[in-house]
Amino acid sequence: MPYAIVVVPVAPLRATAAHKSEMISQLLWGECLEIIATTADGWVQIKNQYDDYTGWASASHLEPIDEKLFHTSATHYLPGWVNRVTMNGVPMMVPYGCLVKGYHQLSAQWGNIHVSLADAPANITTPEAAGIQLKDNALQFLNTAYLWGGRSVFGADCSGFTQHVFRLSGISLLRDAYQQATQGVTVDFLQEARLGDLAFFDNEEGRITHVGILLNDHEIIHASGKVRIDPIDNQGITNADTHLRTHKLRIIRRYY
């Protein structure tokens, strides 16, 4: 199966092969993909290597790569809120946390594209070294606007935010909140929560529709309108600005 890598800062992943189709997720610079199908008018059906999410992307946002690069582990990411890179000598600004596969001495080769970095990337940490680093990663997103399907500091939905933050600590999460709730182990009580546990929230039908990162047993950072820090108790989240109850707590899960 052919492989490709994302060579634009953020690429929409759509439900169908059309620009007007719903954006179901995003593909970030440096992410590798499997090509499932192509169309004559420049659309590519892909599967994201990281989370197996499938959808349609524009071929103009991708560069074909070989199987070796596809299977190369990503060990570095871009640490600035925005980062200057060049692609075959053309400058580009890339968002926080994008991966740099095949990194060597401020450069990488992705197919026919030579990537040069202006600054040294950061190392992806291990789950054992999570905690404070995970909190620092989460705080990079503060005040990022909520965007359905978003996964970057330019715009993120609740599960795209948690997935991206955990990724930089070497912890793999699935894409959607209800999927992330199937991972990890259950924390029985909020009072037992620690930094980095995820709290999940359901709607009136009992479906999990929201997720956030617990900073402790009484504060949560989550994407709701924007990425914000709000108080949480055994019933759920209260908006720190309006003092209104916004989300009903369903379950807490731990991943490291």
Automatic annotation (TrEMBL):
Record-annotated membrane-spanning stretches: none
Keyword field contains Hydrolase: yes
GO molecular function, one term: cysteine-type peptidase activity
GO biological process: proteolysis
UniProt-listed InterPro entries: NLP_P60_dom, Papain-like_cys_pep_sf, Peptidase_C40, SH3_16
Pfam family, one: SH3_16
Keyword Protease set for record: yes
Keywords in alphabetical order: Hydrolase, Protease, Thiol protease
Family named by the database record: Belongs to the peptidase C40 family.
Protein name: C40 family peptidase
Organism this protein belongs to: Chitinophaga solisilvae
